[in-house]
Design goal:
This protein is an alpha+beta fold. It is built from ten helices and seven strands. Strands 1, 2, 3, 4, 5, 6 and 7 form a seven-stranded mixed β-sheet that branches. α3 packs antiparallel against α4 and α4 packs parallel to α6. The radius of gyration is 26 Å and the shape is elongated. The relative contact order is 0.08.
Length: 334
């Protein structure tokens, strides 16, 4: 197709979508025609194309249609195609800005379609290189020795929270001794301490408050074995019988959860909004740096069927669906 014909075809589709008045089928067909044009001739796309596709996503007139999501998905995918098949520049910037705007302001099908389109874009994020040294001789230590070796004066008796021993050391901080379990063995909690050290010393800047715990060492090792616990740990589930542990200094809010039902610990509506917004921001910021939190991943997989399905139990929803073990995941939403 000659350049003049390409311009005319693009203009025809843009004008049809911008003018409005098309029924659902005609709108869908017009949006679908943009795809081969974008994929084969990305250079012909310009600012008005973005506006026409964004108008489809902003138009709520088709939201009651049974197949409305198909239309929104086609429009959002067309915008994403501009980013994939085009070149960097003002048009690409406008396309991604349009998708972000819809995600931030729309609801329902347009928002979901735009979010999925953004999520489908290729990324070049590289995870940081974290060196976890081979675990050698693991030192054994008593509770009182941990305090003395780190110059810590406990302000109260140690409390058991989950499988951690927690003691207050000043108005803002707590000492936490986290023990390994059958589900999270020694190597796993050792990795947590290594990540703490990396985040504290990696020179990262975060846009919101982020109280990163500071790992402590016993005889030069993040991982150690607690000779005995200062209080009974019978409530902790399936602890490693060797009492392998890591220790760290955490902010007093470390064990504060946004869904705590206790009257004295319940958050106000404003506090709840701040907590959820801040943590969503941190989750996204860390992901953009190549640090993906693994805890949410099992939620989106059917663990019972993961060995019997080609997708390893991955849930794919044509509409809203369930999460695996969602109620358990709500117990400690930190």
């Amino acid at each position: 197709m000659h350049g003049w014909n390409l311009e005319r075809e693009r203009g025809r589709l843009e004008n049809a979508l911008m003018a409005g008045g098309l029924d659902f089928t005609a709108t869908y067909m017009a949006v679908c025609e943009f795809h081969p044009l974008i994929q084969r001739h990305p250079g012909v796309i310009h600012s008005k194309t973005i506006s026409a596709l964004e108008r489809v996503l902003e138009d709520s007139g088709f939201s009651s249609q049974t197949q409305s999501f198909s239309l929104y998905k086609e429009a959002a995918d067309a915008l994403a195609s501009i980013l994939v098949h085009g070149t960097a520049g003002p048009v690409a910037d406008q396309a991604i800005a349009a998708l972000k705007r819809i995600v931030g302001t729309a609801t329902g099908g347009p928002q979901r379609a735009s979010a999925e389109a953004l999520g489908s874009l290729p990324i070049s994020i590289r995870s940081p290189k974290i060196k976890e040294n081979t675990i050698g001789d693991i030192p054994s230590v008593r509770w009182q020795e941990i305090l003395e070796d780190n110059g810590i004066t406990a302000c109260d008796a140690p409390a058991v929270i989950g499988r951690s021993l927690v003691v207050t050391i000043d108005r803002e901080n707590r000492l936490v001794i986290k023990l390994a379990s059958v589900e999270n063995p020694a190597q796993s909690i050792y990795g947590e301490a290594v990540w703490m050290e990396h985040l504290c010393s990696g020179g990262y800047a975060f846009p919101v408050r982020f109280n990163i715990p500071v790992a402590i060492k016993i005889d030069g090792s993040y991982l150690f074995r607690l000779k005995e616990t200062p209080v009974s740990m019978c409530k902790a589930r399936e602890l490693d019988p060797q009492y392998y542990a890591i220790g760290f200094i955490a902010h007093k809010d470390y064990f504060t959860y946004p869904n705590d039902h206790g009257t004295k610990r319940r958050l106000t509506a404003e506090e709840f909004t701040e907590v959820m917004s801040r943590n969503a921001c941190l989750l996204g910021k860390l992901a953009s740096l190549g640090m993906i939190h693994s805890a949410p991943i099992p939620l989106f997989h059917n663990r019972v069927q993961r060995n019997r399905r080609a997708d390893h139990g991955l849930y794919e929803w044509p509409r809203g669906g369930r999460l695996d073990r969602w109620l358990d995941s709500c117990c400690y939403p930190n």
